[in-house]
What does this fold into?
Amino acid sequence: MPSFTRLAALAALLVSSGSYVAAVGESGSGTTTRYWPGITSPVKTCDINDKPLADGVTAQSGCTGGTSFMCSSQSPWAVSDSLAYGFAAVTSSNPTCCSCYKLTFTSSSIQGKTMIVQATNTGDDVSGTQFDLAMPGGGFGQFDGCSKEWQATSSVWGAQYGGSDTNQCSKFPSALQQGCSFRWDWMQGQSNPT
It folds into this structure.
Protein backbone atom coordinates (compact mmCIF):
# COMPACT_ATOMS: atom_id res chain seq x y z
CA MET A 1 0.00 0.00 0.00
CA PRO A 2 1.35 3.47 -0.73
CA SER A 3 2.01 5.57 2.31
CA PHE A 4 0.45 9.03 2.37
CA THR A 5 0.87 12.29 4.23
CA ARG A 6 -1.47 15.30 4.02
CA LEU A 7 0.35 18.49 3.02
CA ALA A 8 -1.56 21.62 4.08
CA ALA A 9 0.90 24.22 2.79
CA LEU A 10 1.00 22.77 -0.73
CA ALA A 11 -2.80 22.83 -0.94
CA ALA A 12 -2.70 26.59 -0.51
CA LEU A 13 -0.50 26.84 -3.60
CA LEU A 14 -2.60 24.55 -5.81
CA VAL A 15 -6.14 25.63 -4.94
CA SER A 16 -7.34 28.37 -7.29
CA SER A 17 -10.49 29.51 -5.46
CA GLY A 18 -12.26 29.11 -2.16
CA SER A 19 -10.81 28.15 1.18
CA TYR A 20 -10.07 24.92 2.99
CA VAL A 21 -9.10 23.59 6.38
CA ALA A 22 -6.74 20.64 6.51
CA ALA A 23 -5.13 18.74 9.34
CA VAL A 24 -1.36 18.80 9.07
CA GLY A 25 0.56 15.57 9.24
CA GLU A 26 -2.23 13.03 8.70
CA SER A 27 -0.58 9.89 7.38
CA GLY A 28 -1.07 6.18 6.88
CA SER A 29 -1.32 3.46 4.26
CA GLY A 30 -3.72 3.55 1.35
CA THR A 31 -4.63 2.22 -2.06
CA THR A 32 -4.83 3.77 -5.51
CA THR A 33 -7.21 3.39 -8.42
CA ARG A 34 -7.63 5.59 -11.47
CA TYR A 35 -10.44 7.36 -13.31
CA TRP A 36 -11.19 10.20 -15.71
CA PRO A 37 -14.83 11.11 -15.24
CA GLY A 38 -15.01 14.40 -17.06
CA ILE A 39 -16.97 15.88 -14.16
CA THR A 40 -16.56 19.15 -12.30
CA SER A 41 -14.02 20.05 -9.65
CA PRO A 42 -13.88 22.81 -7.03
CA VAL A 43 -10.44 23.77 -8.32
CA LYS A 44 -11.22 24.61 -11.94
CA THR A 45 -13.80 23.50 -14.47
CA CYS A 46 -14.16 23.87 -18.22
CA ASP A 47 -16.92 23.97 -20.78
CA ILE A 48 -17.54 21.15 -23.26
CA ASN A 49 -14.72 22.60 -25.45
CA ASP A 50 -12.15 22.41 -22.61
CA LYS A 51 -12.20 26.20 -22.07
CA PRO A 52 -12.16 27.43 -18.42
CA LEU A 53 -15.51 28.58 -17.03
CA ALA A 54 -15.70 31.79 -15.00
CA ASP A 55 -18.50 30.27 -12.89
CA GLY A 56 -17.07 26.75 -12.98
CA VAL A 57 -17.29 26.10 -9.26
CA THR A 58 -21.03 26.81 -9.24
CA ALA A 59 -21.95 25.51 -12.71
CA GLN A 60 -23.89 22.25 -12.85
CA SER A 61 -21.94 19.14 -13.88
CA GLY A 62 -22.12 18.00 -17.49
CA CYS A 63 -22.90 14.52 -16.13
CA THR A 64 -26.30 15.80 -15.03
CA GLY A 65 -27.11 18.01 -18.00
CA GLY A 66 -25.03 21.05 -16.99
CA THR A 67 -22.23 22.91 -18.75
CA SER A 68 -19.28 22.13 -16.47
CA PHE A 69 -16.65 19.45 -17.20
CA MET A 70 -13.21 18.42 -15.95
CA CYS A 71 -10.39 20.37 -17.65
CA SER A 72 -7.66 18.50 -19.51
CA SER A 73 -5.16 20.50 -17.43
CA GLN A 74 -6.08 18.28 -14.47
CA SER A 75 -4.08 15.45 -16.02
CA PRO A 76 -1.10 14.15 -14.02
CA TRP A 77 2.43 15.23 -14.92
CA ALA A 78 5.94 14.06 -14.11
CA VAL A 79 8.56 16.43 -12.72
CA SER A 80 11.28 13.77 -12.73
CA ASP A 81 11.60 9.98 -12.86
CA SER A 82 10.75 9.86 -9.17
CA LEU A 83 8.29 12.77 -8.62
CA ALA A 84 4.92 13.55 -10.18
CA TYR A 85 1.89 15.74 -9.49
CA GLY A 86 -1.79 15.12 -10.08
CA PHE A 87 -5.32 15.15 -8.74
CA ALA A 88 -7.46 12.53 -7.01
CA ALA A 89 -10.92 11.73 -5.72
CA VAL A 90 -11.23 10.78 -2.05
CA THR A 91 -14.05 9.24 -0.02
CA SER A 92 -17.26 11.25 0.26
CA SER A 93 -17.78 9.97 3.82
CA ASN A 94 -14.87 12.11 5.06
CA PRO A 95 -14.13 14.62 2.30
CA THR A 96 -10.88 16.55 2.45
CA CYS A 97 -11.46 18.51 -0.72
CA CYS A 98 -8.53 20.63 -1.87
CA SER A 99 -6.13 18.97 0.60
CA CYS A 100 -2.85 17.74 -0.82
CA TYR A 101 -1.26 14.37 -0.16
CA LYS A 102 2.19 12.96 -0.72
CA LEU A 103 1.82 9.37 -1.95
CA THR A 104 4.89 7.17 -1.77
CA PHE A 105 4.46 3.94 -3.71
CA THR A 106 5.62 0.87 -1.80
CA SER A 107 5.27 -1.94 -4.33
CA SER A 108 5.73 -2.91 -7.98
CA SER A 109 8.20 -1.38 -10.41
CA ILE A 110 7.37 2.14 -9.17
CA GLN A 111 8.29 1.41 -5.56
CA GLY A 112 9.87 4.51 -4.00
CA LYS A 113 8.33 6.96 -6.48
CA THR A 114 6.39 9.90 -5.03
CA MET A 115 3.25 11.55 -6.33
CA ILE A 116 1.75 14.71 -4.83
CA VAL A 117 -2.01 14.79 -5.40
CA GLN A 118 -4.68 17.34 -4.61
CA ALA A 119 -8.10 16.01 -3.60
CA THR A 120 -10.44 17.71 -6.08
CA ASN A 121 -13.34 15.27 -6.10
CA THR A 122 -15.19 12.88 -3.82
CA GLY A 123 -17.02 9.66 -4.46
CA ASP A 124 -19.24 7.32 -2.51
CA ASP A 125 -17.51 4.52 -4.44
CA VAL A 126 -14.10 5.55 -3.00
CA SER A 127 -13.08 3.92 0.31
CA GLY A 128 -11.48 5.57 3.34
CA THR A 129 -7.79 5.54 2.40
CA GLN A 130 -8.22 5.13 -1.35
CA PHE A 131 -6.90 7.74 -3.77
CA ASP A 132 -8.70 7.55 -7.13
CA LEU A 133 -6.07 9.17 -9.36
CA ALA A 134 -7.46 11.42 -12.11
CA MET A 135 -5.87 10.12 -15.29
CA PRO A 136 -7.23 10.16 -18.87
CA GLY A 137 -7.85 6.55 -19.85
CA GLY A 138 -8.40 5.51 -16.25
CA GLY A 139 -12.07 4.67 -16.72
CA PHE A 140 -15.15 6.86 -16.43
CA GLY A 141 -15.82 5.86 -12.84
CA GLN A 142 -19.21 6.34 -11.21
CA PHE A 143 -20.22 9.31 -13.40
CA ASP A 144 -19.46 9.59 -17.11
CA GLY A 145 -18.95 13.08 -18.47
CA CYS A 146 -16.35 11.91 -21.02
CA SER A 147 -18.86 10.48 -23.49
CA LYS A 148 -20.43 13.90 -23.83
CA GLU A 149 -17.32 16.09 -23.56
CA TRP A 150 -14.88 14.01 -25.60
CA GLN A 151 -17.20 11.65 -27.58
CA ALA A 152 -15.46 8.83 -25.70
CA THR A 153 -16.24 5.20 -26.43
CA SER A 154 -15.47 2.13 -24.35
CA SER A 155 -13.67 0.57 -27.34
CA VAL A 156 -10.88 3.13 -26.85
CA TRP A 157 -11.38 4.32 -23.26
CA GLY A 158 -11.86 0.85 -21.78
CA ALA A 159 -13.90 -0.33 -18.81
CA GLN A 160 -15.98 1.99 -16.63
CA TYR A 161 -13.68 1.23 -13.70
CA GLY A 162 -9.98 0.98 -14.57
CA GLY A 163 -10.05 2.01 -18.22
CA SER A 164 -7.96 0.29 -20.85
CA ASP A 165 -5.48 -2.51 -20.19
CA THR A 166 -3.42 -1.48 -23.21
CA ASN A 167 -1.93 1.83 -24.27
CA GLN A 168 -4.64 3.49 -26.38
CA CYS A 169 -3.39 7.05 -25.77
CA SER A 170 -2.73 7.84 -29.45
CA LYS A 171 -6.48 7.41 -30.08
CA PHE A 172 -7.41 9.99 -27.42
CA PRO A 173 -8.09 13.67 -28.13
CA SER A 174 -4.73 15.48 -28.34
CA ALA A 175 -5.43 17.48 -25.14
CA LEU A 176 -5.60 14.21 -23.16
CA GLN A 177 -2.81 12.17 -24.77
CA GLN A 178 0.00 13.31 -22.46
CA GLY A 179 -2.10 12.66 -19.33
CA CYS A 180 -3.04 9.23 -20.66
CA SER A 181 0.60 8.43 -21.42
CA PHE A 182 1.48 9.18 -17.78
CA ARG A 183 0.25 5.71 -16.79
CA TRP A 184 2.38 3.98 -19.42
CA ASP A 185 5.47 6.15 -18.92
CA TRP A 186 5.94 7.41 -15.34
CA MET A 187 3.74 4.69 -13.79
CA GLN A 188 5.34 2.08 -16.05
CA GLY A 189 1.97 0.55 -16.98
CA GLN A 190 1.06 -0.30 -13.41
CA SER A 191 -2.69 -0.66 -12.92
CA ASN A 192 -3.44 0.27 -9.29
CA PRO A 193 -0.07 0.41 -7.56
CA THR A 194 0.21 0.39 -3.81
The two ends are 4 Å apart (CA to CA). Residues 141 and 190 are 18 Å apart (CA to CA). The mean pLDDT is 78. The beta strands are 3-7, 27-29, 31-35, 77-78, 83-91, 100-104, 114-123, 130-134.
